[in-house]
Amino acid sequence: MPRRRDYSEADVRVRPSGRGTRPRSKQRPGHADAVPGLVTAVDRGRYQVLTDAGGPVVAIKARELGRGAMVVGDRVDLVGDVSGTEGTLARVVRVHDRQTVLRRSAEDNDSHQRVIVANADQLVIVTALADPEPRPRMVDRCLVAAFDAGMDALLCLTKADLAPPEPFLERYTGLDVPAVSTQRVEEQIHGLDRVTEQLSGRVSVLVGHSGVGKSTLVNALVPDADRATGGVNAVTGRGRHTSSSAVALPLPGGGWIIDTPGVRSFGLAHVDTDRFLAAFTDLAEVAQECPRGCTHAADAPDCALDEWVTGAGPVAHARLDSFRRLLASRTGSDD
Q1: For the chain, which domains are there?
Q2: Does the pLDDT value for residue 286 go beyond 90?
Q3: What is the pTM of this model?
Q4: How many angstroms separate the CA atoms of 244 and 241, rounded?
Q5: Residue 191, Cβ neighbours under 10 Å: how many?
Q6: Can you tell me whether residue 281 is helix, strand or coil?
Q7: CB under 8 Å to 210, separation ≥6 — which residues?
Q8: Residue 62 neighbours by CB distance under 10 Å
Q9: 278: number of Cβ within 10 Å
């Protein structure tokens, strides 16, 4: 039977002092020489940034920024190689505070919010007057999102050569929302000057269904944009997705437009239901006569909106129905 070994201190391996024992510093470089810029596109962890000096740069996000997402429209600071030479990478070390944030969720009961763009001051709701048919409830949702984000809204109606804009705009006569319309005549877009006037000097984000002519409009506003365009599926009547990511483009006359992929839903899970009514300014004025605590829902007792809509025309009924459907979709009572 082998004898038991007696161990001594000499048998213990001691790690040399001073190796790997230096505490990590919580101080971070100030990056006083960082170059400011604007995120114009995002592609799989790579960020297209236009520096204030005018140079396009490809950048990655610094590890110290954490996992928070950066989006088109963010103002950032860069270090490293900001020459923009092919094959080089800069590093984003700082993201400035956002002035506005446009969000949406996949559904009204989806708690996950997706930030679409940052720092835009105008939401351009692009909808076709025909082919595909306009969806007023989608417009209402976008108006609520714009109001919640502190952004102005603009209605841009395309394909006015297929249907007149007046019947659709009648729904929004009670709102202080400007509207423009365009139409194609012999491969030319008429009404583009009025659109340009509304966009000049502003940062505008374009949102709309696939197939409404959004990319066609962008290509007309920015001739070298080269955004892919597509038609409408003859079977489903829905537009085909052509743009896969958001991109910010400078307007020739000043200002920016941010083109976004076509959407088929615009969830408002991030918006408090108390703010819904504020976006329907025509209804909000009437609702001031409601009793205290009124929910303004379809089953709300003594709601002033019910008395107002009695005897009113179809436009008023459509507006109230759209507002109440939005409420119902958030409370789970929408069948």
Answers
A1: 35-95 (2.40.50.140), 120-259 (3.40.50.300), 273-331 (no CATH)
A2: yes
A3: 0.80
A4: 7
A5: 18
A6: helix
A7: 230, 238, 239, 240, 241, 242, 261, 262, 263, 264
A8: 19
A9: 14
